Amino acid sequence: MTHDELKEMLAEASKVFVLTDANVAMYWLPELKHWLDCEQAVEVVVKAGERYKTLGTARRIWKALLKNQADRQSVLVNLGGGTISDMGGFVASCYQRGIRFVNVPTTLLAMVDASIGGKNGVDLGGVKNQIGTFAEPEEVLVNPIFLSTLSDRELLSGIAEMVKYGYVADEDLLKVDESNYEQYILRAGRIKKEIVEQDFRDHGKRRILNFGHTVGHAIEAYSMTTDNLLTHGEAVAVGMWSALWLSIGECGLDEEVLDDYLLKMQILLSESGWSFTQKDIEPIMAYLKHDKKNVNGQYGFVLLRDIEKPVCDRFVSDAVIRESLSELMDHLNDV
Ligand SMILES: NC(=O)c1ccc[n+]([C@@H]2O[C@H](COP(=O)([O-])OP(=O)(O)OC[C@H]3O[C@@H](n4cnc5c(N)ncnc54)[C@H](O)[C@@H]3O)[C@@H](O)[C@H]2O)c1
Question: DSSP readout, 51-76?
């Protein structure tokens, strides 16, 4: 869809709603309405961050839609990072059994990953993305201008997801860093799109995109119960270390791949100051039990035989995962 076609779609909608969070609203809400010629759009502003990606917030958004008479011809524009596109897509796909939505990603992570592919959802009981839908946005509008107000920490978070594509799909993405990420945005988004097109419902190839996300999601969820909150990308950066470590023993991955990643991980975590101790390992293990890739209580990891050679459904024992977390703990304490 061209920019003009999108403006036309919004002009023809019975009502346009813009969902965003308080941080993004401050920087970009008026600009976006002006840019899309939808000054009359109803603004729905929620609190920022993963802590608010919940059914409670979704309910508030549904109520705002209802109060403002949203109908099947209305369009919801999700202006924000992955928490907004995940939650907005979910809300839109359930409201009156589904209204159209458009994603306007404002974080690097959302531009290259979260806003693409139609996985929507909210967390439940602290467990990530337990309630959700598959529904695709009408359009994803990527404009790197939004990144001008993004913190270095959030930029690194997006770079972590780009590095993930480097391991599972396109080695060139392993070169992405703070100095060159802009030139890889479209390429990274295209990788995601191509993989999703082959397996929209996540039964096959799409699962390679979960590389680093098994331990990553558990650590992200656990961090939400502490004062030391990790970004999604930081958690994935940690999860990738675990997945690479496990890949050596389980799939014969060359140890050098892990050695090379250590420096990258240190950079990706450099704004977080995060580390953990022995007492954190069991709570992290408890969150692992909720992972959607588990089958019959076993953890289904995405591991690597080599760079660009991912293997899905590698079931690894609790003892080996605990060992990987202990090793990781030692490395993080050295950072
Ligand atoms: N659906 C998917 O396929 C998919 C894929 C990857 C991640 N995700 C989800 O995405 C979420 C993480 O997304 P995220 O990293 O974008 O986090 P986020 O949406 O929470 O944004 C991070 C922070 O940056 C702020 N922010 C956003 N854009 C800004 C801008 N342009 N300028 C200044 N501040 C800005 C936000 O207010 C927030 O405080 C997680 O919930 C994760 O599970 C979903």
Answer: GG-BHHHHHHHHHHHHHTT--TT-EE
CB atoms within 10 A of CB 34: 10
Taking the alpha carbons of 28, 33, 39, 44 in that order, is the dihedral positive or negative? negative
196 lines ligand 1 (CB under 6 A): no
Beta bridge partners, 102, equal 77, 139
**Ranges in the chain, pLDDT < 70:** 292, 335
**Substitution candidate for ligand 1 out of 18, 19, 23 with most atoms within 8 A of CB:** 23
Has this prediction a pTM greater than 0.90?
Answer: yes
Helix (H) or strand (E) holding 31, with range, is helix 22-35
> What is the identity of the amino acid at 187?
R
What domains are defined for the chain? Answer: 3-148 (3.40.50.1970), 152-334 (1.20.1090.10)
Residue 335: the pLDDT is 57
- Cα(191) to centroid of ligand 1, in Å? 19
**Element (H or E) spanning 260, and its range?**
helix 255-268
